[in-house]
Design goal:
Elements (H helix, E strand, L loop, with lengths): L9 H18 L3 E2 L2 E3 L5 E3 L5 E2 L10 H12 L1 H19 L2 H12 L4 H19 L8 H10 L5 H18 L7 H7 L8 H28 L25 H24 L3 H18 L4 H14 L1 H19 L3 H34 L3 H19 L3 H15 L7 H10 L3 H28 L4
Antiparallel strand pairs: 1-4, 2-3
Helix pairs in contact: 1-13, 2-13, 3-11, 3-12, 3-13, 4-6, 4-10, 5-7, 5-9, 6-7, 7-9, 7-16, 7-17, 8-15, 9-18, 10-11, 11-12, 13-15, 14-15, 14-16, 14-18, 15-16, 16-18
């Protein structure tokens, strides 16, 4: 595929979209809706009030460059929250507690294929749904392949446990700070709100993923030649790997992390915590975890800084993505685009409009695999479209989550997926054959979940 078509770096792609957005401000009629403050205190557009402006302002090409620092400042709250999260998770990873926990789970149930698949998938999904973990899984690819090989499970089954768990975790995103919190912030929703419904639907989605991987595994165990990687040398299990041993320090770190996550849930539900309080909690967690692991204050600072630096690219993506919305707002064409997109969706009814949002988000994930970047590109459009077609903003965010999370398991522009497949030696075309039926199942299940969310007025 890459021989004929190469997707550019996400930052290049976002800047290209900025250029397109600027050109659109020159050729699309400027217009706007009337707005009002709803019961939740949010400014929403009023259906049926769109009108074309009599006068318009044409943006200068220099706006492409001046809008970037403005956008970084406009999104500073979320950008710095992401950097804090990155630093905190780096300190937790440095202790080795996460490696030890996942290793313990793998070895404890490794002799029972069905339990290994379910609980392994559950562990990866839980970490992604709550802490937003993704790249951290890459080192576990080879370890998981080795454990599964002893149970006559091929490489595709092993990687399926990891990637399907990770994708479903991002899809349901109970309180993922990198996708859910960002999207809800753009949609002017309380970060973490609506987690009850997401928690309810998490298990059915996980069971769909489990059934898919387990069905394939049973077929391969019965007929090894039916493996999608049968005869492919690069995809055969490597030599035996060692796992990190669980220590009392690791247990203490995991307890502290669990307590912090519990506090996060309670703070959001009971005290209306927002990014400032959540960021403060993660800073405190990094310090506590570092002291528990006896890392030393200087080491904690260095590791925290390194972890934050690793997400500098993500921070820039957020700023560039926000620039697109600012250009459309400055050119007064954002509402024109919203009106054009909402008109056909409005004829379909709120339920099918929500499904249409899922379809749009799924396509966009191919071009913008960064979840936080995609949130800033799409939510400024999807939130007001939802207002117009009778879809709550929480449902619009849920459509974004499904499109981002589920498609992460199949789009070749996702660096985490391609890194995992590369380590396991699985050709992308073989992986595509394995995962595409599951993507279709999840798309159907996601559509049903969105329709139900519309029926219950999910907030």
């Amino acid at each position: 595929m890459s021989r004929y078509f190469k997707v550019p770096n996400t930052l290049v792609l976002l800047f290209s979209i900025m250029v397109v957005a600027l050109i659109l401000t020159w050729i699309i009629p400027a217009g706007g809706f009337e707005t009002e403050i709803n019961e939740a205190g949010r400014s929403v557009v009023v259906p049926g009030t769109y009108s074309v402006n009599a006068d318009r302002t044409y943006l200068s090409p220099l706006a492409l460059f001046t809008v970037i620092p403005r956008a970084l400042g406009d999104a500073s709250g979320i950008i710095f929250f992401v950097l804090i999260i990155g630093g905190s998770l780096a300190v937790i990873r440095e202790t080795g507690a996460i490696d030890a926990m996942l290793g313990r789970i793998i070895t404890a149930i490794g002799h029972m294929p069905s339990l290994l698949i379910f609980f392994g998938m559950f562990a990866f999904a839980a970490a992604s749904a709550t802490l937003g973990m993704a790249e951290e899984y890459i080192p576990f690819a080879i370890i998981l392949v080795g454990v599964c090989a002893a149970l006559r499970m091929d490489t595709v089954s092993a990687i399926g446990i990891m990637v399907v768990g990770y994708g479903i975790g991002y899809g349901v995103a109970i309180m993922n700070p990198f996708t859910l919190f960002v999207a809800q912030g753009v949609a002017e929703l309380q970060p973490g709100s609506g987690m009850e419904y997401r928690a309810i639907i998490a298990l059915p989605f996980l069971l769909i993923g489990f059934h898919h991987v387990w069905s394939y595994t049973r077929k391969v165990q019965e007929r090894p030649e039916s493996s999608l990687v049968f005869g492919i040398n690069s995809a055969q299990p490597p030599a035996e790997n060692t796992l990190t041993e669980m220590t009392r320090t690791h247990i203490a770190v995991l307890v502290a992390t669990g307590a912090a996550l519990t506090g996060l849930v309670l703070g959001i539900a009971l005290a209306d915590w927002y990014l400032v309080e959540l960021g403060a909690m993660f800073v405190g967690l990094a310090i506590v975890v570092g002291l528990i692991a006896r890392m030393g204050t200087d080491t904690i600072a260095v590791v925290f800084t390194r972890g934050a630096a690793e997400l500098t690219g993500t921070a820039l993506l957020i700023g560039f993505a926000r620039s697109i919305g600012l250009l459309l707002e400055d050119g007064e064409v954002l509402h024109t685009i919203v009106n054009a997109a909402a008109t056909p969706l409005s004829y379909a009814g709120a339920e099918f409009a929500a499904v249409g949002m899922l379809f749009i988000q799924s396509i966009l994930n191919f071009f913008i695999p960064s979840g936080s970047g995609q949130a800033f590109v799409t939510m400024p459009l999807m939130a007001p479209i939802g207002d117009l077609v009778g879809v709550t903003r929480q449902v619009s965010v849920l459509a974004f989550q499904f499109g981002d999370g589920f498609m992460n398991m199949i789009v070749p522009t996702n660096p985490v997926l391609m890194g995992i497949l590369g380590l396991a030696g699985i050709p992308y075309d073989r992986w595509f054959r394995f995962i595409i039926p599951l993507i279709l199942k999840l798309f159907v299940a996601g559509s049903l979940a969105l329709i139900i969310a519309v029926w219950i007025g999910y907030q």
